Amino acid sequence: xxxxxxxxxxxxxxxxxxxxxxxxxxxxxxxxxxxxxxxxxxxxxxxxxxxxxxxxxxxxxxxxxxxxxxxxxxxxxxxxxxxxxxxxxxxxxxxxxxxxxxxxxxxxxxxxxxxxxxxxxxxxxxxxxxxxxxxxxxxxxxxxxxxxxxxxxxxxxxxxxxxxxxxxxx
Length: 170
Known about the structure:
CATH 2.40.50.100; 8-stranded antiparallel β-barrel; 1 helix
């Protein structure tokens, strides 16, 4: 999966291969090991022999803030879909409004991956939207329970049309 992460106005091209535990940042390939510490909200990440602590993780739309070895970091993160939309001139600022998944562009619903009552995690694929002859995986904007699905498979949707709503946990 490819991302663009911007820290202090400096963009970083990031590609993560979770199967092989390899991250490539601006062309530099690094093997990593990610260790989650349950119930602490803390992650440990190892690059070679160096172990780093990622703590205090907060996500607000495209802004991710956290501490990395005790140093505060704030970054704007755009995934492959958001980068493509931006390239095509669409705004991605409102894509992650809490609980509401709207069509980022006109298209056709190819597949609904969830139904009402399903529990979903933020970032989990929930819908496949075909637009401009490409299949786009739309992801849950928040963790929670699918409260309503406003479309059916093979429906055509307009930009900003509500696809589904998730009742956030909390």
